[in-house]
Amino acid sequence: MRRIIVALVTAVVGCGVALAVRAHAFLDHASPAVGSSVPTAPSVVTLWFTQDLEPAFSSVTVTNEAGQRVDLGNAQIPSGSPAQLLIALKPLPPGTYLVSWHVVSVDTHPTEGTFTFEVGRG
Amino acid sequence: MNPIWPGAVVVAAVTLLSATSPALAHGWAGERFFPATILTDDPFVADEISLPQVSLQPPAPDASQLTNIEIDLSKRITPSTGIVIGDEWQRLRAPGVSSVGGLGPLRTMGQYQLFIDGPHQALGLLGLNVTWGHTGRAAVGAPNFTTLSPTFDFGKGFGDIPRSLTFLRPFAITGNLGFDFPTQATTAGVPNPNNFSYGFAFEYSFPYLECCVKDIGLRPPFNQLILLVEVAFTTSISRAPANQTTGTIQPGIIWAGPYFQIGAEAIIPANRLTGHGYGGVVQLHFYLDDIFPRSIGRPISEWW
Question: Which domains does chain A have, with CATH numbers?
Fold first, then answer.
């Protein structure tokens, strides 16, 4: 029985490795950091994911406490950094800001998330 | 134009759309990832396989002890329907008696994803479990009758509570409510009771804490850990004396990676009727939809 289980596990893992698999894109980290307080307003929000992203289906927005967009609407995946998503910001007054992202990894798995950061209150 | 071309174009278009449309995911409701739990059923259809799950049950009241090596395969038929097939090899040891081993009963489950509410991180699933009679070795307890078990499985993440409650938002709960209806009232004069089964998994997700609440600086493997306590109980509701409740409490931990997860839990009997002492369970669980995203990891309805 043990041999059968070892063989099955090896087969599944082997198949996975052989296919150069990819998976859901989790947010690895962000700048400004998730839930952080920063003393000065950032000019850009950058997100790093655990998988490469599909540009056509990946986006991020930043809104203030009133729900108004404070980003410049130019979300992009930098060339050479396919697991990174960034967007430029308008000048931000002190306050709390909500980052909302929705991405699709290159293997078509969608994931989404939100987090806040604070400016000038840290 | 050759008559084969229109068909080929349609097939190509469908294939292209199928390959580029976002795939539905396993264990997700909005921004909440629900891992596959060990004791309680998952509230989502999935393409996953537990290979294997190994457990040493706590000693029963009669001091017998069971070791299980279990395999479970979950497969989506369509994006909202699925099946689960499982079986286990069991070894039963009892004082003064030679140990016996053999297959347990075959288990199958038909599933329908009732709802997925992303903003509220909620999931609901209807299922019909069938434990098939005459499919395992009687000496290790496999029944000679089939049991039908309709269930409702649910999941709820608490990420939608006020953001000021920072460190409560990574909590989530999943659970099962179901009934067991044996298709045979008695076996050798011993009643086969109808049961009410219920179980819950209380989870605290470090992945959710890190991605959506507050980056406290955890890095792999710690930012991929989910702490949990699972409980499950079965209460006889007919053909048995009242208060015949058995169950276990299982605190543990799950590490969830991109392609598989590893879980381990202690098994603590909830009462003397269940057993005494301690047991344990470990599980290696693969996400087939992540390993094979363009082939067998997709719902069968999207294979063509």
Answer: 23-119 (2.60.40.1220)
Q: Which residues of A touch B19 (CB under 8 A)?
A: 108
B290 in A contact zone (CB under 8 Å): yes
Token pair 């003393």 in the structure block, residue: A39
CATH, range B24-302:
2.40.160.40
Whether the CB-CB separation of A68 and A46 falls below 8 Å is answered with no
Locate the domains of chain B by residue range. 24-302
At B70-93, the pLDDT tens digits run 999 999 999 999 999 999 999 999
* A115/B286 Cβ within 8 A: no
Using the predicted structure, report yes or no on whether residue B17 has a pLDDT greater than 70. no
Enumerate the β-bridge partners of residue A98: A63, A116
Q: What is the ipTM of this complex?
A: 0.82
Q: Which residues sit opposite A119 in a β-bridge?
A: A38, A95
Element (H, E) at A78: none
CB A31 within 8 A of CB A43: no
d(CA A105, CA A51): 6
B143-199 confidence digits (pLDDT tens): 999 999 999 999 999 999 998 899 999 999 999 999 999 999 998 888 899 999 999
